[in-house]
Amino acid sequence: MNDLFLRGDYATAPTNYSALLIALLLSFACGHLIAWIYMLTHTGLSYSRSYVNTLILMPVIVALVMMILANNLVLAFGLMAIFAMVRFRSILRDTLDTTYVLAVIVIGLACGTLKFTSAVIGCLGVSAIMVYFWATSFGTRHRYNLIVNVQWARPAGELGDLRQLLRRHSRTAECASQRSNEGYQGIDLSYRLLLRDPARSDELIDELRALQGVARVSSLHAGDESEM
């Protein structure tokens, strides 16, 4: 019975079932590692459980495809025709998510072509780089962490008191916008501040409200600057 089952493939080249099993198990293990790294390092609102499952399943499928092809051009062209009918409607909002998909595909290719050592080294290397990016917050730029909107009722030439107060609490103070209001002799100012001590932002707001000439103050805590 076992011989009948194991001899059920009638391809031109015999199938190495031991290598096939190792390829599937190794691709499954590497996919698990990449998925765990993604779960650990992911930030934002685009987290999806089905995407995590895809990271595990995709290298297994790719490895199986490579083992089935086995350098057979006829099967390769037939497989391309079948995949051409498949449409993936999911849109990855984060470019790093696309990198994860590419990583598991390459790992699946390595397992399917029996390059097991390359698959293990590549999986560990990619995982280490992903953890490095997450642990060091590499690429993050902290240009400002507080946005302050001030309605200035005094003349524009007397803004020195306001600027002096902002410089006392912040490393950098950038005036993002300055607009005059038609209804009164006042100016709407918007500043981007990189605070010396973010925990003392409330103290800054209280001092601004107490400053003569400030009619209204509003603030907004800004996250890391996003780059498109």
Provide keyphrases for this structure.
228 residues, alpha+beta, Alpha-Beta Plaits, four-stranded antiparallel sheet, rod-shaped, disordered C terminus
Write the layout of secondary structure elements.
Layout: H1 2-6, H2 17-41, H3 49-69, H4 73-83, H5 95-112, H6 116-136, E1 146-152, H7 160-169, E2 170-180, E3 187-195, H8 201-210, E4 214-221
Antiparallel strand pairs: 1-3, 1-4, 2-3
Task: Report what the structure shows.
This protein is an alpha+beta fold. It has two domains: 2-136, no CATH class; 146-221, Alpha-Beta Plaits (2-Layer Sandwich). It has helices at residues 2-6, 17-41, 49-69, 73-83, 95-112, 116-136, 160-169, 201-210; strands at residues 146-152, 170-180, 187-195, 214-221. Strands 2-3-1-4 form a four-stranded antiparallel beta sheet. Helix 2 (17-41) runs parallel beside helix 6 (116-136), helix 3 (49-69) runs parallel beside helix 5 (95-112) and helix 5 (95-112) runs antiparallel to helix 6. The chain is rod-shaped, with a radius of gyration of 29 Å. Mean pLDDT is 79; it is low at 224-228.
